[in-house]
Specification:
With about 575 residues, the protein is an alpha+beta fold. The chain has a seven-stranded mixed beta barrel. A three-stranded antiparallel sheet has the order 8-9-10. The chain has a two-stranded antiparallel ribbon with strand order 11-12. Strand 11 and strand 12 form a beta hairpin. The longest helix is centred in the last third of the chain and has 34 residues.
């Protein structure tokens, strides 16, 4: 009888454990996804300028500086905020921007790649395996890329870690850089439920995502970065859906992609899918659904100029070099290709000096492409040809214009950044611009705050219908107008934001509720990864099944134990 009570107590304990595990299972799943990866708060600490000290053999450094275009990888030791990691891969990075610095007689301010596990598998720093040090090329403010990633983050887009870093190499000051997390398996694991899907860096044939055919080998510019043995059938299915008609929500995180394009359009980032070069973005597929990931924003805020990227002040030959470089660039690197390599009086030509021009401020939100047509950008065209999707896209633009781009918010952000980085800019020995040019760019008559304020005014005027802008497409350069699709309203000015189809007010993103009543506001919580997803559900089902089997086994054991007790 005593033994029976022990068995009953054991069964009760198992039931209690089962209930407890089921109650805490969702939290356990999230913890598993982020366990050990604390680099976003340690390496990319935005409250300070991180110190990055790189040491390597003098001969190796000389070899790199003598042949920077070779991107030779050499062993180095990297110390970040006093924490040292040895035997780390170190090389130059970039394409045309790299070549631009190569041609400068007085600069060795290259962008750098730091790869912790290049020589030692699984070596990392707080979970981080690789990151870049970007040299803020063609950006006298040092802020374009940082602010762009901040907006993407606020819009709920999976965004690489980023913060300011002051770099020394072999004890010599190299200057103020922007550290940016590499988009690779570590990033995917930290931002998505499973992180084991197909990652692409499109750049070349097929990067416009136009339909070529069912043979993935024809899309030579899609550049698969993970799962090399993948049949890439999900990519073909997505390309088919956006080009030939299909259920977009089966192949695409539609709402997230609308937020992505709204942010990119507001930023007038034309060195991107929406411009002539159709690059500088990632596509990530998980469980057959694609997300678009942000990358390389030093030419945002109109820095790539209007009219498809031709730079005022640059010669025809220089612009030809820029265009040709896009065709011959190393597809294994991920750097803007739209900048013309040139020198002007011994210094870099400022190719972003005309960022406040009318074509940038009034960049079209209804046909948000430059030097191309919506037809030639089928992913964007498929979304904006749908009434409901287009309305959501307009809502998100309204939210950006009234919130992130507000003069109050932009002033506060740029002031905080200036307070943080100005002492480092002053002592930066390799900076591309003088301290006077930096001061003028950040507090003069034409700043990023001024750009944002005027851009916001234009966006709101376009949304209300008070301003109709002809897009800088092939049609505005002599070609025919782009086809927005079968929708009768496609290509028309957006409806007045004061009322929707049924008279209901169209609200900004922070006022629009989703189907479940949640508010996807401008607070960084919109569409965040790792919540309701099929991968987590599968894990839950598997673990639940195991626990149920254990519980059932215990009950069967108790049943037979009682029967044996009675026989005895």
């Amino acid at each position: 009888m005593l033994k029976t009570r022990y068995v009953v107590a054991s069964i009760g304990l198992l039931i209690a454990i089962f209930i407890a595990v089921m109650s805490f299972l969702p939290n356990l799943t999230i913890e598993k996804a982020t366990k050990g990866n604390t680099y976003t708060g340690s390496v990319f600490d935005q409250s300070k300028v991180t110190t990055v000290d790189i040491t390597l053999a003098d001969d190796d450094l000389d070899s790199i500086l003598d042949n920077p275009s070779e991107k030779e990888v050499v062993a180095s030791d990297v110390t970040i905020n006093g924490e040292k990691v040895e035997n780390v891969g170190f090389r130059t990075k970039g394409n045309l921007s790299l070549n631009s610095v190569v041609q400068m007689e007085d600069s060795e301010r290259y962008s750098w790649n730091i790869d912790f596990n290049y020589y030692q598998s699984d070596q990392n720093l707080h979970g981080l395996k690789e990151f870049d040090l970007n040299n803020n090329y063609s950006d006298p403010t040092y802020m374009r890329e940082y602010l762009s990633y901040e907006l993407m983050e606020k819009m709920g887009i999976a965004t690489p870690g980023h913060s300011y870093m002051y770099v020394t190499i072999n004890g010599k000051e190299w200057g103020l850089y922007l550290g940016v997390e590499s988009i690779n398996e570590t990033f995917l694991n930290n931002n998505f439920p499973s992180g084991n899907g197909d990652l692409y860096y499109p750049d070349g044939t097929g990067s416009d995502l136009k339909w070529i055919g069912e043979d993935i080998d024809d899309y030579t510019g899609l550049n698969l970065k993970t799962n090399e043995s993948s049949d890439q059938s999900a990519m073909i299915k997505m390309l088919d859906a956006i080009n030939n008609g299909g259920d977009l929500e089966e192949v695409l995180d539609v709402d997230e992609t609308l937020r992505y394009f709204a942010a990119n359009t507001a930023l007038v980032n034309l060195d991107h899918y929406q411009g002539t070069l159709k690059h500088n973005y990632y596509l990530y597929e998980e469980n057959g659904v694609f997300s678009m990931l942000p990358w390389d924003y030093n030419m945002s805020f109109g820095g790539f100029s209007g009219g498809g990227g031709r730079q005022e002040g640059a010669s025809d030959k220089e612009n030809e070099v820029a265009a040709e470089s896009n065709d011959t660039a190393n597809k294994d690197d991920t750097e803007p290709l739209g900048e013309a390599p040139n020198k002007n009086g011994g210094r870099m030509m400022d190719m972003s000096s005309n960022f406040m021009n009318e074509s940038n401020i009034n960049f079209s939100i209804t046909e948000p492409v430059s030097g191309t047509t919506l037809e030639d950008r089928p992913l964007l065209n498929a979304l904006l040809s749908n009434d409901g999707y287009r309305e959501k896209y307009y809502d998100y633009l309204d939210g950006i214009a009234t919130d992130f781009f507000s003069e109050e918010n932009m002033t506060a952000m740029t002031t905080d950044i200036s307070t943080l980085i100005t002492p480092y800019v002053k002592k930066d020995p390799t900076k591309f611009y003088t301290i006077e040019e930096y001061t003028e760019a950040t507090s003069g008559e034409e700043t990023l705050v001024d750009f944002a304020a005027q851009r916001a005014e234009s966006i709101l005027a376009q949304l209300s219908g008070d301003l109709v802008v002809e897009a800088e497409t092939e049609s505005s350069m002599g070609g025919r107008a782009p086809n927005r699709g079968d929708n009768a309203n496609a290509g028309q000015p957006p409806p007045n934001m004061g009322g929707g189809e049924n008279g209901a007010a169209l609200q900004s993103p922070n006022m629009v509720n989703d189907e479940n009543g949640a508010t996807p506001g401008m607070n960084g919580n919109m569409g965040q990864q790792g919540t309701d997803n099929s991968s987590s559900s599968k894990n839950t089902i598997i673990l639940s099944s195991v626990l149920l089997l254990l519980l059932f086994g215990a009950m069967v054991f108790a049943h037979f134990f009682k029967r044996r007790g009675k026989k005895g």
